[in-house]
Amino acid sequence: MDTSQARELASVDALGQAALAASGELSAVDLLEAAIIRLEAARPLNAVITDLLDRGREQAAALDQSGALRAGDAGPLAGVPFLLKDLGASLAGTPEAMGSRALRDYVAPETSWVVQQYLDAGLVVFGKTNTPEWGNHCTTEPFLFGPTVNPWAPDVTPGGSSGGSAAAVAAGVVPAASGGDGTGSIRVPAACCGLVGLKPRRGRSSFAPDGGQGMEGLVNGHALTRTVRDSAALLDVIAGSAVGDPYAVPAPPTPFLAAIAEPPAATRILTTTQSPFPGPPTHPEVVAAVDAVAHTLDGLGHRIDSGAPTFDPDVVADAIAVLHTVSNAQLHAFGRSVLGREPEEDDFEPSSWVMMREGFETTGVAYAEAIGAVHAQTRRFAAGMSGHDVLLVPTLLTPPPPYGSLNQPRGTTRAFFDVEFATTGWTTMANVTGWAAISLPLGVTATGLPIGVQLMAQDEGILLQLAAQLETATPWSQRRPVGWVG
């Protein structure tokens, strides 16, 4: 595999690369070696913090030797190089620091159910991507590994907490990489890096073997991609439940990849550009991007109404803060088990330490009340969507923000999230409600930075169909960041 051919492959999405392997034009080893060439070219981005090149080569060689690729028995994504976020995507026997100095020597003892689905689908894992400590920040600049550089501009964040995955995909290292989303951690980096970022609905996939849910249902995992069809295909891979899961959702009537081949029926869409949380007004370029998408959807035959569901932003922010304090108290306990000693303040980042200290004092009653508040505000939100199928809103209320703006301690956990929500706006409500949400790279600033536009619905099917329709109507595939390695 020469460098020129490796760079040409950067433009081919995951399904396209798998088709090359299935046809015999290229092998899984060829695809992987091309991705490694691109990875080396992208090292200055600091997107990949753990190399698993030898395990990837072994897996690719085994795929080629099995003959399954060319026999057509390996699935639509077999042979595609793939990266795992270094949080929530455990691979047995490999490092998993989760962005934390306390966990720098931790090695995952088992493979998560979702990662096993990736491996069973023939995705070739050859590295792990950078993430902020414990996924706490909507930016990726952990003290342990240092910041990931946004391929679009070195002075703005790639977002977080799936920022390493987003940067690797945006730069063309891989066509797709895994992510997780607790208050926007797939959609925020998708918006910052000009990608497709889908947060599935609650219960779409499993947290097995070591969990039944993530942060009382706030967290869901999926991937960052450059095309809608890749997002749909990867969702088909992880959709389902493991034996003994406490929650699950019905399987889709049609596989997601097949569903996007059909245009959506006329859809009732509610839209607003205003933030539901206190803060500065939405940036004019973001407003213009959302309005343009609404106009496009109207022209495609959908009904567009101005407005938004209501909820109590103060109650939501309080509940999110409480759930994160308890989650970070768990990080402290996990750090103790890994270190074999009581963790000290220097083992964690300042903002995490604030959350931990509050978590130690959070009562069981306060935690239960936070869960109840989330459920009550979900019902209020859902009632406000009565008569509409989809909510159209900004992903971020601003263009990609600078480094250092979304990871600083603010004295209290609530104050930390007040600052975050003034930038992220609607993203957290998809996590609170458990609704599916997708960010699409449908806008561009005057300086060429990507702007994400977000669609929310109770189910992923309608979102993927609308996304595919918008991808055709307003193509983004030819936009390339300055850090593109193709």
From TrEMBL:
Keywords: Hydrolase. Its EC number is 3.5.1.4. Residues 30-458 form the Amidase domain. Gene3D superfamilies: Amidase signature (AS) domain (3.90.1300.10). The keyword Hydrolase applies. GO terms for molecular function: amidase activity. Pfam families: Amidase (PF01425). PANTHER family: GLUTAMYL-TRNA(GLN) AMIDOTRANSFERASE SUBUNIT A, MITOCHONDRIAL (PTHR11895:SF7), TRANSAMIDASE (PTHR11895). This is amidase. It comes from Mycolicibacterium madagascariense. The lineage of its organism: Bacteria, Bacillati, Actinomycetota, Actinomycetes, Mycobacteriales.
